[in-house]
Every structure is written in C-alpha cells, then in structure tokens.
Amino acid sequence: MARPDPDDVELELFIRALQLRHGYDFSGYARASLKRRVQGLAIARQCQTIGELTTRVLHDDGLLPSVIAGLSVPVSEMFRNPFVFKALADDVFPVLASYPHINIWQAGCARGEEVYTLAILLEEAGLYERTQIYATDFNDAALAQAQEGIFPVAEARAWSENYRAAGGSASLSDYWHARYEHLKLDERLKRNITFANHNLVADGVFCEAHLILCRNVLIYFTNELQDRVLGLFRHSLVRGGYLVLGNKESIAFAASAAEFCEFDARARIYRLGAVPA
Amino acid sequence: MPGPASMVSTAVVLGCSTGGLRALSTLLAALRPDLAVPVIVVCHRSQDDDDALFVELLARHSALPVVEAGEREPARPGRVHVAPSGYHLLLEADGRFMLSVDPRVRHVRPSVDVLFESAAEVHGAGLLAAILTGANDDGADGLLAVRRHRGYAVVQDPAEAEAPQMPQAALKHAGADAVIGLIRLAALINERCR
C-alpha cells in the first residue's frame, strides 16, 4: 500500500489538535478544500508546513480566532444569484404569508450579506413585521461583523445590479448610507434579526423554522456531515417548510434528504414532506 | 528512453480562458470516443454564465459526452466534466468532485490552479495536464504542482494559441514535458489514455 502523503498526515494532526486543544471539530470537512484553506493559513503566517501551524495553534491561543475565521464560510454578496431571491419572493413568500408568525433560519450567515438580503426582501413583501430571522454561524468574528452591517463600498454597484435582477421594487441604495469607503445598512433592517453562535457540526435544533437558507455551506462537508446537517434541518423545519441550498449543491447522496421534495430545482429550493394539494 | 506514449495516464485536466471554447472544440473533436479516463475542464467564464449552454456548445463538437461536473459525483471515464461557473472545482481523494466558493485565486473562480493542484495530489504521475489559450497567468502554479507530483505537463504552443499569455506564463513558471498544438495534444491523450 502506498504511504500517505506527509501533508495529508499533517492535516489530520492539525484537525486533531484543534479538536483536543480548542474543541473545534473539522473532521467532517471535505479534505481537498480544507487542505487548501489550512495551507493558505500556514503560508500567511510564514509557516513552512501545516505541522508548524499546528504547533503555533497549540501554544498561542491568540492565533485561534484568525484560524477559525480562515476555516469558516467565506465572503458572499447581497442578492447573489438574483433568480434565487426572485423565486423566493414570487413562489415561497406567498405561502409563508399564510402563517401568523414566520421563523427563518439563516444557517452559516458569515458576514451577513444574505441575512440583510432576506430582510430587504421580506420588507418589500410586507412580511417583515411578523418575521423572526435567526442568523447563525460558529465564527464569532464573522457574527460580530454581520451584526454591524458594514460592507465595502466597492460592492455597491454589483449588489445593486443583483437587487434589480431579483425584482427589487426600490433602489438598494435606499437601504444603506455610504460613508467613506463603506456602506452601513439601515439599522431598522436589524430589528427582527437575532445573531447567535451555532455550530452545524455540533449543535442541535433550536427553533421551528418555516424557511432555512444554507447556501454554499454544506459544499465544504463530507457526505456524512452533510447528511447529519440535513437531518438537523429536517427536524428544525415545520411540515411543508422550505430549504434553500447553493446553486450547484447536490443532496442526492444524503439519506436525510429523502423527505425533501424538489420545489424549484434550478434555484435549489426544497420543501419538506408531501406538498398539500 | 521511454517516450510519453509508453506511459499510461489515469485522468486528463485542461485549463483555458480567452479562446477556450474554440480550442476545446478542436481538441475534444479529435479525441477517441472510447477514451478510458475522465477529462476535466476549467474554462474561465463570468460568475453567472449559463452553464447548460456552455456544456451544449462543447458537446456539439466533442467525440465524448460533455457534462457539468456535479458536486459529490465521481469523475467518470470517457466523459468530459466542465467546472461550473462561480465555483472552484476540486477532486477528492476518492475521485469525487467537490466545489468551493473560497475567494478567487489570481482573480478567477473557477481557478485552473485549484483544479490542477487537487488533481495532482489524487492522480500523481497518472495525471496528464494541459494549459491552453488564455489571457492571464492562471494555471502556472497548478502546472508546477502537476510536475512536482510527476504528472505529464503539456502547454499549448503559444504560437498557435488564440491568447498566448496563459501558455507562456505556465511555460516560464513550470516548464513542460511537451509544447505542442491541439491536434498533437489530442493524439497524445488518445495514446496515453487507451
């Protein structure tokens, strides 16, 4: 049998060290993308090998937040893939409107681009007053940034175009103030958002949701972890509740996905259980 | 001295950018229809490009079935798998595709470097990698990784390439086992991947 590559052994030891010393479990992450990220972290800290990074993470607790940040959900954009949000507004919101109170869970919210996208969409649909959005991530630094709602002004144009393509009825700039090099989103958009730390790897059900958004998060997970998290979503959703995944995600290999029916295949919107006639 | 034709490859990866559709059409048309290994392609396009249309355009001329590389699906022999727009495409150790939305590498996503580096780790000396036409320097690091893993590295002859920068950058940074035109590349692939 071929001997494993030393880098791959070092990656496993790094994962083990984070788990034993700091309680973060990345063992369910797909290795190819995780390895790239860890190698990137090592290079950025002038470490020659992943092993060197492991030693530093073990002995320097101050390094942990930046390592966790480097291993979590990357930057997104507002209204990314506009047709998905158009489908939400056109086809899903009318059903959500039949509930007196709406719970939405944004799982893996990172810096919050999509949480605010949702808030704006709900506001324009006249549903926001009776909606509670739970925005969760395991990365505290990202959560703090999401809560601030401040983004680089360089994004303004692309996001405005996305917003229009998604069918937005006003102008996206109505929702932010440009200050220096930054956009600060309207404080009022936060009024029904709860930001909270939740780790999909380890934590359980905490709400009864009508809609869960988790786009481009599970793509970093092994089949086993993907299946666990889809099970968590199934138990968190009301019957007939909706799940939105990233555009290119596949749940074909997950046993827990059996009860999710395709609602909009292209937008990757699924619905839990048999759809009432 | 053993020539390239005496070697056997287990996968083919192709990277291209400007002029890529035309180059791929020429190359894929000249491949043997019973190719025994998967062909995996990264061609730079805009983030919201119509993937289905791109696959259809490639399939028109290809001797092999062309499909979008599907998340968690295995790379299959005799098929051309195209990286979806807006995502990095990686190969896992068990031969399945995974995607990532990590930041652009050298301003692009999908990145040729990302595909080549992960494929080099999985296929080692069995990988046949080629950098085709393109107007940037993506793929140079990837081709170097392929060579470090003793894979076979090909660069399209810059004189033939519609945009020579990408082949030139790869050649300068990584060198190559062969610098050839598309028709000779097709013959080489056919020979090594029976």
How much is the average pLDDT of chain B?
95
- As for the number of domains of chain A, it is 2
Q: Using the 3D structure, state the CATH architecture of chain B.
A: 3-Layer(aba) Sandwich
Secondary-structure-based class of chain B equals: alpha/beta
Strand content of chain B: 15-25%
N to C succession of SSEs of chain B: EHEHEEEEHEHEHEH
Largest interface: A-B, 22 and 23 residues
| SS summary, helix count of chain B | 6
Question: What does the secondary structure layout of this molecule look like, with pairings?
Answer:
The complex is a heterodimer of chains A (277) and B (194).
Chain A: H1 6-22, H2 31-44, H3 50-59, H4 64-70, H5 82-96, E1 102-107, H6 113-124, E2 131-137, H7 140-148, E3 150-152, H8 156-165, E4 176-179, E5 182-185, E6 193-197, E7 209-214, H9 223-236, E8 237-245, E9 260-264, E10 269-272
Parallel strand pairs in A: 1-2, 1-7, 2-6, 7-8
Antiparallel strand pairs in A: 3-5, 4-5, 8-10, 9-10
Helix pairs in contact in A: 1-3
Chain B: E1 11-16, H1 20-29, E2 39-43, H2 51-61, E3 66-68, E4 80-82, E5 88-91, E6 97-100, H3 112-123, E7 127-131, H4 140-148, E8 152-156, H5 165-174, E9 178-180, H6 182-192
Parallel strand pairs in B: 1-2, 1-7, 2-4, 3-4, 7-8, 8-9
Antiparallel strand pairs in B: 5-6
Helix pairs in contact in B: 1-2, 1-6, 3-4, 4-5
